[in-house]
Amino acid sequence: MIPLKDNIPSKTIPIINYLIIAVNAYIFILEIKIGSNVMWLIEAYAFYPKELTLLLRGELLSLSPVKKMFTSMFLHGGFGHFLGNMLFLFIFGDNVEDRLGHIRYLFFYLFCGLAAILLHYIFNAYSATPTLGASGAIAGVMGAYFIFFPYAKVLTLIPIFIFLQFVEIPAFFFLIFWFIMQFYLGTVSKILGSSNVAWWAHVGGFVVGVIIAVISTLFRKIRRAYL
After folding, report:
1. Whole-angstrom Cα distance, residue 142 to residue 221?
2. By the 8 A CB rule, do 92 and 149 touch?
3. Model confidence pLDDT, tens digit, residues 68-84
4. Which domains does the chain have, with CATH numbers?
5. pLDDT digits (tens, 9 = 90+) for 185-221
6. Phi-psi category of 161—alpha, beta or left, where left has phi over 0 and alpha has psi -120 to 50?
7. What's the order of all strands across the beta sheet hosting 163-170?
């Protein structure tokens, strides 16, 4: 299922969401320009779980694994990876930024990305495979959207064999289906022991996004009650 747009217009200009997309686009263009030498960029800025394990054991003196937990959020492994992430962020991010406000949205985005990487690390502490991409942070945005706008409609492209079907799906069903698929694929990949996708980062980001959105909604209701 490929989301194309939702039916909730932004009340404000989502400047942080646009800025995040622009930074990701700039870095992806840089990756393309580097070409066959892109591995040096990945080695320097992608997150390697094994490096963090070595740091926690005291066998690595550099704090680079901590830095890479943030820089890895802005790298992508190919055009499809980049385009898919930015499409989801463009559709769901503006409304979440509306609800949280610009600055809080920025910190929310980065925190969800960090939480996503940490959950991925828990399941892959000895992995030497680089982790990169904005998927975990964007999963957090989707988790918040799930709480804030469950009754929104998402125009979705559904490929059925050689046919393309356009369907408006309630955001609640679209996002819960997406989450179940990430959890299922993460479980299967853990059992089989082979996957190039950080499924558990998606799960972790989504769950953290839901938790923060629930807390934000409760505080919003309490504040309104007192006012």
Report:
1. 21
2. no
3. 999 999 999 889 999 99
4. 2-226 (1.20.1540.10)
5. 988 887 776 667 888 899 999 999 999 999 999 988 8
6. left
7. 2-6, 153-160, 163-170
